[in-house]
Design brief:
Radius of gyration: 23 Å
Number of helices: 15
Number of strands: 24
Shape: globular
CATH topology of the largest domain: Aldehyde Dehydrogenase, Chain A, domain 1
Bound molecules: nicotinamide-adenine-dinucleotide
Number of domains: 2
CATH class of the largest domain: Alpha Beta
């Protein structure tokens, strides 16, 4: 499909959008029962885009009832997997067809560059639905090795009503990682997008109906965490809840499950991922370019961002100089300009949070090498310069807490053993990388790094075929790949005696 090529063309398209701003329950758009709505703000300008229905427990309950009814009458779960595949492939095609519109919704809503939303996010969303559509009629059950007078089969069944609660950094992609496998497996879903970024999910629901998804199978309830999110977590009719967001809120969902019906909980939480560069890295230019991308892509609002650069002392200065040069090339710009590589932070709160961490870094003795300031103040938006610190020690706040912004903490180390000790000294374990040309260092290091993904001589390489998720407080369970289907199915043993 053709995409607009200039800022002006994207802005013109934005003006013509018919933005969906009501909840999607039982196959149609509805207002919140309370009649309340909240402001949806463009973080690049500070302007209100629209007002979105503010769902609370009453709306959540309606959405769950709709999902429950659609699950119980098997209008989706009872369909032949091949038929579900056809619908989801149609949805993938519709997402591709509406790539410009959906990308624009993401960019207006949360500030990411249009080049990323149209070139990365939306194509990956379409691929995710397509991949799970293709997978679902190729999954077989098992026959157990029992005695001759018994047939014991092990089959997968959908869990039932799945709630998905997602964050704002990749709004539709995080939703797709849940919806793709959950819907393919035959579940009915209630999706709560983040309050900062509800627009693309609301449009997706309509496209799903157009693709042939039966009414009630996908419901979308925009609203706030402590109301709508909590209501999903506590609801007795939600069988499984898949969450992506902060570790703090992830822990709340474990409590909600304990206080209610022991629903299955899957958590994809935060990270403080180490990117280790040893003196024998094969190519410092490449390592520096990847390190810059690992922290500045998506304004650093990436759960697996390489926010701790752990570098062997002898090459530390060379690395920093290269990364500083990359940072200077990524001055924040208008997200609607296709040339922009670093957009706005999701909102003013997040910008203030990031600036607060930068202040703390300086106060605790880290050395600021580039950036550190708010940018494009006249735009009315929330922009922060790409920022690099060196002389960081593993105990400083900026080395321990997830900043979720374009702020790199560089920690010098004496060699591979210290690098691994520093890398693993974190409550998180989402991802890690090591750069070395020595396989006898790379392989044991990959084993010793406590992280769900380890990259060797690359960072951020990714594909829907591989599982993604965290060790330690980075989460429970895996998104992507066939492993994700485990979260949305339960196995049934059927024991037949002859
Ligand atoms: P968040 O935890 O504040 O919010 C995530 C979702 O939870 C939102 O929909 C929000 O409304 C809801 N929520 C908030 N408080 C709630 C409550 N009390 N009860 C129920 N629901 C509640 O996270 P965020 O600020 O939106 O996103 C940033 C976080 O997400 C970061 O920590 C980041 O690392 C993480 N993240 C993780 C992954 C991953 O795959 N591991 C991917 C993207 C983002």
């Amino acid at each position: 499909m053709e995409l607009p090529e200039t800022r002006q063309a994207w802005a013109t398209l934005a003006d013509s959008l018919d933005i969906r701003n009501r909840a999607f329950i039982d196959g149609r758009y509805v207002d919140a029962a309370s009649g309340r709505a909240f402001d949806c703000v463009n973080p690049a300008t500070g302007e209100i885009i629209t007002r979105v229905a503010e769902c609370d427990s009453e709306d959540v309950d309606r959405a769950i009832q709709s999902a429950r009814a659609s699950f119980e009458d098997e209008r989706w779960a009872g369909m032949d997997p091949r038929a579900r595949k056809t619908v989801l492939l149609r949805l993938a095609a519709l997402i591709e067809e509406h790539r410009a519109e959906l990308a624009l919704l993401e960019t207006l809503d949360m500030g990411k560059p249009i080049a990323d939303s149209s070139g990365v996010d939306i194509p990956l969303v379409a691929r995710t639905f397509g991949w799970y559509a293709e997978a679902i009629d190729k999954l077989y059950g098992e026959t157990a090795p029992t005695a001759d007078n018994v047939l014991a089969t092990i089959t997968r069944e959908p869990i039932g009503v799945v709630a998905a609660v997602v964050p704002w950094n990749f709004p539709l992609m995080m939703a797709a990682w849940k919806l793709g496998p959950a819907l393919a497996a035959g579940n009915s879903v209630v999706l709560k997008p983040a309050e900062q970024s509800p627009l693309s999910a609301l449009r997706l629901a309509e496209l799903a109906i157009e693709a042939g998804l039966p009414e009630g199978v996908l419901n979308v309830v925009p609203g706030f965490g402590p109301t709508a999110g909590k209501a999903l977590g506590l609801h007795m009719e939600v069988d499984a809840l898949a969450f992506t967001g902060s570790a703090e809120v992830g822990k709340l969902f474990l409590q909600y499950a304990g206080q209610s019906n022991m629903k299955h909980i899957a958590l994809e939480c935060g990270g403080k991922s180490p990117n280790i560069v040893l003196a024998d890295a094969p190519d410092l230019d490449q390592a520096a370019s990847a390190a810059a991308n690992a922290i500045f892509f998506n304004q650093g609002e990436v759960c697996m961002s390489g926010s701790r650069l752990i570098v062997e002392e002898s090459i530390c200065e060379e690395m920093i100089e290269r990364i500083v040069a990359h940072a200077r090339e990524r001055a924040p710009g208008d997200p609607l300009d296709p040339a922009t590589r670093l957009g706005a932070m999701v909102d003013a709160d997040q910008m203030e949070r990031v600036l607060g961490y930068i202040e703390k870094g300086q106060a605790e003795g880290a050395r600021l090498r580039v950036g550190g300031q708010r940018s494009r103040v006249d735009s009315g938006g929330s922009f922060v310069e790409p920022t690099v610190f060196d002389n960081v020690s593993g105990s400083m706040t900026i080395a321990r807490e997830e900043i979720f912004g374009p702020v790199l903490a560089t920690i010098p180390v004496s060699g591979v053993d210290e690098a691994l000790a520093v890398a693993n000294d974190s409550p998180f374990g989402l991802a890690a990388a090591i750069w070395t040309r020595d396989i006898s260092k790379a392989h044991p290091a990959a084993r010793r790094l406590r992280a769900g993904t380890v990259w060797v001589n690359c960072y951020d390489d990714d594909d829907i075929t591989v599982p993604f998720g965290g060790y330690k407080q980075s989460g429970i369970g895996r998104d992507k790949s066939l492993h994700a289907i485990d979260k949305y199915t339960q196995t049934k043993t059927t024991w037949i005696r002859f």
